[in-house]
Amino acid sequence: MGTKKRIQASKHSATGKFALPQSVKARMQLYEGALNATSTAVCIALADAEQDDPIIYVNPAFESITGYNREQVLGRNCRFLQGNDRDQPSLDLVRKALREHCSCRAVLRNYRQNGDLFWNRIYISPIRTEAETISHFIAVCEDITLQKVAETRASVARSEAQFRATHDTLTGLPNRYLLRDRLQTALDNAHRTAEPLAVVDIHIDRFSAINAELGYVIGDQILLALAERLRQHLGAATTLGRQGGDEFLLVAPGVPDETALSAWCLTLNELIMKRLAVKPDLRLSASIGAHLVTNAELTADEVLRRVEQAAERAKREGRNSHTLYHPDIDSQPDYQLVLRSEIFDAIQEGQFLLHYQPQMSCRTQQILGVEALARWRHPKRGLLAPQDFIQIAEDSGHIVALGEWVLRTACNQLREWVRLGLNPGSVAVNVSATQLSRESFTDSVHQALEDSGLRPDLLELELTESIMFSDASVTLDKLNALKKLGVRLSIDDFGTGYSSLSYLKKLPIDRLKIDKSFISGLPDDQHDSAIVRTIIAMARNLNLEVVAEGVETLPQLNFLSRHFCDQAQGYYFSPPIAAEGIYALLLEKQQKRAGGKDDQPTLLLVDDEDNVLSALQRLFRHEPLRILTAGSAEEATVILAEETVEVILTDHAMPGSSGIELLRHVESQQPDIVRLLLTGYSNPALIASGIDDIAVYKCLTKPWRDDELLDTVRQAFQLHQDKSDP
């Protein structure tokens, strides 16, 4: 009634030159003129189910978007725009809204008169008479096809980048990083089943000479044909991958003993020696190292080192043979000696490249920066990770030249992303104690910033805890000089060294990075949990940010978020990937922002149990929502003070303040937020007395029904939207 009175009052007060025309005809002409002038498609249908809700009006924009003129659509139901494409989840929302005479928003696949697909963002609203009956439905339509095409391209680019990060670009086989993960999984399975695991390292003999004589194009064709031959020969249970260059790795369960393993290696070499169609006059051979793992306590890196040693022994013994690992094999020093002699030329010849790992906000999961990580594109051994060459670079004295190259390259790359209008945040570069000890290091950093044009605050230098054992006064002077340049400083792998806390408080650092060894056991390992909580609490008291490394699971992320860790990086978000992959991620983020996706409504989930939060996040992961989580009412209060939230769903019983106390606080401070309560009581009426004084939209019980909870949350957002619309 209040609304009607206001409308009537406005009719009487709208006089003078600003008043609407008095005659109905004149007003209708004015309204139709406005609809005809708008670029947004408008369609009005009669609310008459017996006549199939026929269209009675479309504006010119509707005709332009669909290709149909009004004579072709009047009297028809709007469903003709879907053609035969009727199995769309969003159509269920539309049908429900029409049945229940309520508003709805949806994105539909529609088809123009010529059959072309277009994406239609539609808003449908009922029109009510003075008697509160529904007379018509009005639909406002927007063609968002270009936006959808851009999103699809960005998604494809991201998928391709992620595939390239874990697979060999030539053969499509798992690369050394994915192989390592799969080997570790196989070792874990072997530990559970107490069965042996065979690991075989295949090095094609003298393949560098083949490349030199025949060229890399033919060399690649040979490797591709050989990979396909191996793939067809091996069973589905065997993992085949390319370590890089001329090296393949096999991981196979079900090999009973070393006699069977030796026989299998002979078979593999015979398979490799068969002529290939791509080069029939060429006969390949291989040096094969193999190990039958019966000690499940070994790590993937230890097993890889063992088969590498065995393969090196096979090479030294004349090639075209295989060697099974045994403890007295000691070829690793030879391998390191070769790399030591090659690393200087590799720096000069540009064999190094950078991969970047995103650093994400624990709370919003937005990219806040990247860490630059060096890779060695070795002409024979493929792509080598830092653990394969950093210590060699340190020991040989080449770490300074390599570090300067990393610094310059990272600054230039970040500046390029900024120039392209992207927002990558900061870039973190690892700095060794040897680099920091050089008198010219500060000048090198200043020169890299000058040459690249990068803002100093966008560069972060990651230092190891070992700097604390250098000359204290000299180190402190150098760090202060770096801070004067405007760069940010952090301590990497914090907790693994022998940190002096009295010294730590004197350092002009900005943040700590928790080593991944403490993250892997979260949230179940009590010792890891206690250490991580302590580091975070200490850092906050020292006004330092905290970054967690090696985050691989959602429960780990939830634990970190609940304890106010600022950022995280790890395979849960993304492995280290090439610059092109980061570009795709940043471009997708920018396109989402341009398409309004960054303005998605926000749902805050509050529960003190990590498994419940994880289950809720999985339930809502396909909804067009931004999801924030909190592990306590106190944490939720902090988030509410910093973030815009439309709907909050909180557990009833939590340590500290309860869910009811939290909702009472929300009602008093932010009454527009729609409030939902989740309780473990089987009868919600039992807690009704506790919520009589607050407006809770709905109270649901645990365990919940997914469909019921989804519908309730959707209705809550619709309620917030209805209250927000003028």
Automatic annotation (TrEMBL):
Residues 336-590 form the EAL domain. Its EC number is 3.1.4.52. This is cyclic-guanylate-specific phosphodiesterase. Residues 104-156 form the PAC domain. Residues 195-327 form the GGDEF domain. Residues 44-101 form the PAS domain. Residues 602-717 form the Response regulatory domain. Transmembrane segments: none annotated. One of its GO terms (molecular function) is cyclic-guanylate-specific phosphodiesterase activity. The modification 4-aspartylphosphate is found at residue 651. GO terms for biological process: phosphorelay signal transduction system. CDD domains: EAL, GGDEF, PAS, REC_HupR-like. It comes from Natronospirillum operosum.
